[in-house]
């Protein structure tokens, strides 16, 4: 007879048509629980009142178009006395249900980005009116139960799997595929804890405030901030030793491929990091070591040894789980779900490899033919050598990154900045469509080995001519200036003579065919007026950003001591506490300074200060600021291209672009940052190594499938190709 302290079966509850993916204990008066399933439904189960055991389905809810992966229950309040149920699914949406109707009260679509399939992986209740969600799009969002997204959090560099809220109801913890646990306080990622395992699947905050974390190595780890519960010095050292002994394969990890012979030595660790969780690679003897910066401890912690990093031998095999393979395919089984690795050697039997892959990942045997044929198709004509970077996913049929693939449209290429057609000499229209394998579900072309043999036309980078902000409506600008002048403080108000001079200057610089030249008096007035109070100066800054494109203004304001004064003034306007309009216009002015030789010299000499202050604005939630920031980085990348000795400057460009991509959402800003990355690394092996050490490849992978606009996906794939 079983001991009374052991658990035994109470009941089995049929109901869902497919596997159950999430459960949550109910806080409703009826008690019970809620289940969600791959059959796209959520069901509420209440205890049987007539029996001592068993549950009865009391409510079934539908609203998702793909399987439901997570659920949370929001406690009753005055507005919703029976509480609410929130569900997240692989259709990228969150549905909020009540117990009074089977369809959603609210549908939240913030985790759906055009061109991506980013499923919602986890939900966590904040209060009876708010909850958090996390997604494969590497973002965390805070929602009102009525559907308003009130805040977005970025820090993770890969899928986010789990969330849990601290007892204070505001701070929380998250885990994901980037090997990390991240602790969020006051809306910011306050600490990053890296684990010696790839997937950190789940977490929960315990009643005492400690954090329990479960990972793919089968170990549950508990972290605490209370001194009395901190592990012994011996156990802490053992954990750090385990972390330092982890092996990180650049081809399957997040550090990219590297050249050990060109990496810096241990002295590189003498410089402190600038953000928690920042990674840095060094060469120690014949080994490459990865370190992570800990803000709380103020030191670099070793997080592992990088293996298989040298790209000297292009025929080097791929290391996976301590073994070498000819190919390691990345397979996305569930359209945005966690990716799986399919290792394969040319000498292996494809059917046996497919069988082992399905069995290891607990996948349905019905996929055996699909996987085996996928292997056969994508290893045709290959002998021992490196794995192809990508091909068609055998489960979804969707195309992924193929090095060397490009827009096959003949004759014209889209200008990546204007969208207009651009003539490509030597091309001609054939009127034919490239050969491909039709996707049986979408009808679109899928992988074709012939695509690998075609040459690439890269119209995106390196981009060495500057990108400027030239569009303007002089009439509206001056009308606003005149309006604000009327309400300006007495000591700043301009008389009619000064206003007329500014108007003449604006008309001169706005008309490229104007025979007039800006006068020294007009430029002096512009400079003085640009120091108006911050709440009314923006139309003057708009004139300034147009004026610096003119050679005469560029020479006077950007040369000599005046240049330093201009730079300091614009940096002051770009303060993170400043006004967004002024921040944007200051960034645009810096971008336009690149149009003249004096401006370029000034910005090169002030590069560190300008890019550092610009990087501080990445967290400002403003599309125009993000586009201007991206353009500034791009212009710096263009002027640094072909200068291999400027590695420190290129490192800053890469760092700013990489950090900006963690938070920027606007596709035009993303595109310009991608072009900046491509321009920085093109033709410079040292810059490529720096980009790989920053994990740029894994960071930008999510943009490879963007098709709206197409230039984002195309440019992303070309950058990834450059970093192979």
Outline:
With 724 residues, the protein is α+β, with helices and mostly antiparallel strands.
List keywords for this structure.
single chain; 724 residues; alpha+beta; four-stranded antiparallel beta sheet; 18 helices; 29% helix; globular; WD40_repeat_dom_sf; Phospholipase A2 activating protein; WD repeat; WD40_rpt
Itemize the secondary structure elements and their pairings.
Blueprint: E1 20-25, E2 33-37, E3 41-47, E4 55-62, E5 68-74, E6 84-89, E7 94-97, E8 106-108, E9 120-125, E10 130-135, E11 139-144, E12 149-154, E13 160-165, E14 172-176, E15 180-185, E16 188-194, E17 200-205, E18 211-215, E19 220-223, H1 233-244, E20 247-248, E21 279-284, E22 287-294, E23 299-306, E24 318-320, E25 323-325, E26 327-332, E27 339-344, H2 350-360, H3 368-378, E28 412-414, E29 421-423, H4 474-486, H5 496-510, H6 520-529, H7 538-547, H8 551-558, H9 560-573, H10 580-593, H11 597-605, H12 607-616, H13 623-640, H14 647-661, H15 667-681, H16 685-693, H17 696-700, H18 710-722
Parallel strand pairs: 20-23
Antiparallel strand pairs: 1-2, 2-3, 3-4, 5-6, 6-7, 7-8, 9-10, 10-11, 11-12, 13-14, 14-15, 15-16, 17-18, 18-19, 21-22, 22-23, 24-25, 26-27, 28-29
Helix pairs in contact: 2-3, 4-7, 5-6, 7-10, 8-11, 9-10, 10-13, 12-13, 12-14, 13-14, 13-15, 14-15, 14-16, 15-18
């Amino acid at each position: 007879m079983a001991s009374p302290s052991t658990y035994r079966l109470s009941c089995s509850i049929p109901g869902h048509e497919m596997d159950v993916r999430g459960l949550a204990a109910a806080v409703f008066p009826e008690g019970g629980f809620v289940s969600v399933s791959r059959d796209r439904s959520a069901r509420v189960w209440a205890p049987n009142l007539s029996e001592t055991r068993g549950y009865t389905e009391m409510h079934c809810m539908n609203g998702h178009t793909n399987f439901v992966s997570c659920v949370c229950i929001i406690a009753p309040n005055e507005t919703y006395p029976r509480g609410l149920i929130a569900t997240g699914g692989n259709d990228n949406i969150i549905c909020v249900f009540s117990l009074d109707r089977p369809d959603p009260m609210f549908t939240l679509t913030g985790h759906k980005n055009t061109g991506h399939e980013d499923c919602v992986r986890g939900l966590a209740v904040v209060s009876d009116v708010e909850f958090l969600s996390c997604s494969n799009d590497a973002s965390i969002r805070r929602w009102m139960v009525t559907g308003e997204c009130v805040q977005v959090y970025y820090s993770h560099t890969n899928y986010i799997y789990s969330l849990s809220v601290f007892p204070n109801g505001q701070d929380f913890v998250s885990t994901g595929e980037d090997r990390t646990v991240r602790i969020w306080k006051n809306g910011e990622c306050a600490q990053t804890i890296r684990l010696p395992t790839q997937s950190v699947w789940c977490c929960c905050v315990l009643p005492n405030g400690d954090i329990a974390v479960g990972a793919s190595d089968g170990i549950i780890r508990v972290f605490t901030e209370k001194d009395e519960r901190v592990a012994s010095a011996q156990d802490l050292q053992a954990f750090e030793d385990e972390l330092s002994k982890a092996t990180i394969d650049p081809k399957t990890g997040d550090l990219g491929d590297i050249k050990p012979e060109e990496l810096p030595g241990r002295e590189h660790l003498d410089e402190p990091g600038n953000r928690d969780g920042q990674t840095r690679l060094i060469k120690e003897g014949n080994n490459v070591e990865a370190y992570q910066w800990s803000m709380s401890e103020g030191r670099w912690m070793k997080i592992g040894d990088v293996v298989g990093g040298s790209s000297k031998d292009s025929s080097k095999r791929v290391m996976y789980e301590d073994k070498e393979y000819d190919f390691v395919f990345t397979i996305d089984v569930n359209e945005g779900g966690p990716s799986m690795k399919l290792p394969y050697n040319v000498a292996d039997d494809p059917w046996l490899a497919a069988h082992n892959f399905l069995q290891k990942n607990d996948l349905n045997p019905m996929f055996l033919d699909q996987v085996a044929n996928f292997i056969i198709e994508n290893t045709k004509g290959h002998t021992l050598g490196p794995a192809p970077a990508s091909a068609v996913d055998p489960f979804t049929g969707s195309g992924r990154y193929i090095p060397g693939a490009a827009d096959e449209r003949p004759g014209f290429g889209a200008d990546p900045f204007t969208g207009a057609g651009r003539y490509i000499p030597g091309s001609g229209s054939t009127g034919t469509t490239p050969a491909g394998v039709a996707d049986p579900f979408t009808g679109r072309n899928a992988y074709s080995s012939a695509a690998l043999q075609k040459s690439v036309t890269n119209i995106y980078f390196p981009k060495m001519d500057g990108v400027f902000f030239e569009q303007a409506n002089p009439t509206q600008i001056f009308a606003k200036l005149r309006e604000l002048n009327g309400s300006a403080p007495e000591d700043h108000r301009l008389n009619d003579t000064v206003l007329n001079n500014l108007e003449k200057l604006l008309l001169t610089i706005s008309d490229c065919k104007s025979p007039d030249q800006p006068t020294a008096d007009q430029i002096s007035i512009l400079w003085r007026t640009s120091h108006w109070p911050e709440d009314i100066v923006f139309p003057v800054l708009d004139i300034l950003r147009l004026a610096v494109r003119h050679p005469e203004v560029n020479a006077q304001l950007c040369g000599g001591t005046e240049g330093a004064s201009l730079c300091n003034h614009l940096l002051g306007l770009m303060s993170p506490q400043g006004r967004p309009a002024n921040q944007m216009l200051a960034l645009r002015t810096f971008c336009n300074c690149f149009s003249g030789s004096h401006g370029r010299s000034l910005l090169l000499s002030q590069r560190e200060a300008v890019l550092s202050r610009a990087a501080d604005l990445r967290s400002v939630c403003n599309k125009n600021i993000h586009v201007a920031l991206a353009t500034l980085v791009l212009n710096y990348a263009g002027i640094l291209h072909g200068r291999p000795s400027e590695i420190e400057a290129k490192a800053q460009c890469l760092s700013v672009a990489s950090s900006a991509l963690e938070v920027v959402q606007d596709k035009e800003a993303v595109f310009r940052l991608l072009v900046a990355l491509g321009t920085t690394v093109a033709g410079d092996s040292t810059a490529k190594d720096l980009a790989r050490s920053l994990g740029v490849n894994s960071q930008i992978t999510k943009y490879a499938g963007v098709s709206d606009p197409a230039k984002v996906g195309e440019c992303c794939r070309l950058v990834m190709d450059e970093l192979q």
